[in-house]
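Archive entry. Fields below.
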Amino acid sequence: MFTGNDFLALVAEGLPQTRGTDLAVADWQPGEVTLRLPFNEASIRPGGTISGPTLFSLADIALYGVVLSRIGHVELAVTTNLNINFLRRPEPADLLARARLLKLGTRLAVGEVAIWRDAVDGGPDRAVAHATGTYSIPPGGREG
Amino acid sequence: MFTGNDFLALVAEGLPQTRGTDLAVADWQPGEVTLRLPFNEASIRPGGTISGPTLFSLADIALYGVVLSRIGHVELAVTTNLNINFLRRPEPADLLARARLLKLGTRLAVGEVAIWRDAVDGGPDRAVAHATGTYSIPPGGREG
Amino acid sequence: MFTGNDFLALVAEGLPQTRGTDLAVADWQPGEVTLRLPFNEASIRPGGTISGPTLFSLADIALYGVVLSRIGHVELAVTTNLNINFLRRPEPADLLARARLLKLGTRLAVGEVAIWRDAVDGGPDRAVAHATGTYSIPPGGREG
Amino acid sequence: MFTGNDFLALVAEGLPQTRGTDLAVADWQPGEVTLRLPFNEASIRPGGTISGPTLFSLADIALYGVVLSRIGHVELAVTTNLNINFLRRPEPADLLARARLLKLGTRLAVGEVAIWRDAVDGGPDRAVAHATGTYSIPPGGREG
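PREDICTED_STRUCTURE:
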């Protein structure tokens, strides 16, 4: 069983963009995962909004997490497509990202993720960004 | 107030691809709309699956519906972007399409839609297709 | 070698939405394919523009063609994702759709397509629609 | 006239993710812009490939550049949608990103961008990533 802590260890080692971010797992169920990205000065643009790459990166990691929550650690699972809609101006705040699997096949997994500001938006219905993504799973990559 | 029947009348008049399809409104709430597309031989590909354009067209109409469910009849609201993921082989069946608004701004509306087979999949968690779309709303177009 | 005529025969048999459309191949090179869709009353919306599903369907077929132009006839190659931007109001005219491959892997192919009005826009730089799409290629599906 | 140097000054001030990256303008024409991102250890994942957020960020900046190359400096032009396909494993190298405008309207601009490794891929036909994006232009925002 691949846990949220397993995922955080993997991310800390493998994804340089999360270094120093205090990324945390808020909820971890197979097929539905919520991550928390605490507010960080480094991700703020002048004018005071969270940068697009910060939101993209969080969406990508949450989608990666929800895929691994079902198939376990697969080193070579890679993002092949990510489509992101920026919905509202993201003033600085802790972010929550909830990812769900739409499909888990033997070769491709598809998921969606909503990102919202924890103390401001109240829930995914008032998201600042929404993304769908596709991951390619290598042959023999699925554990279960 | 713009109702599901108003929408069906508008679609019957304005969208040629729905002619002869018996498209119906299964549920109509402002901001969340579910349409039903009864099984139709004309939308089947040899091999026996529902064609991609049939699914695209249903996704586009459902997203249009959920935008109008909030802003009323705006003649010139047009799709500017639609991203669709085909998730499972859609064997012939009645289709349900549930669309939700992700954002309603003064100039742009963004929504998502899941399409599933009513008697087969049991719900949007087993969708055959999922799409997100953006609609451009003309100046002065919003009623409320 | 899979030719443009092979493709038209395949499409005539397998894709119901092209029936009665006089779809033609304007240019056929491995990795770059241009299709022509003559003007057809059935694809016009009231108000006089070409419908979104007509543009989606043409984009999808052109992308399918450019994949087959390189790998030959693979029955089970299926669209997994299509992202389409509607750029300009498409007044009635013959349409040209030029598709190019961005990547051809053993499992996935990615292409892009621009659609423009032959006598009006003059070329793909003034396209009415632009799409990118992903196709899944079954194991053993590639001929060469 | 808004030049490539104007753009670099704007980016240096406004986009924190470019700090310390030596981002440069390789070519700057109104409507077609090519940026260069020199190789940087900080953007490498363990395993030795360039990270997805690095590619997303470069695509987003190049699309922003090509919009400004036509409309000049518009503070509030914001990305509303970005769809990115990851095409090949991006081994470390200097990256080139060529962005072109697909449409420039009064309210929305749409562009596409190809990213390739300068010394390795030889050109955009062998891109490691391809994206399309939409920018919202505020009322009165266009200079010309």
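CURATOR_NOTE: The first strand of chain D starts at residue 24 and ends at 29.
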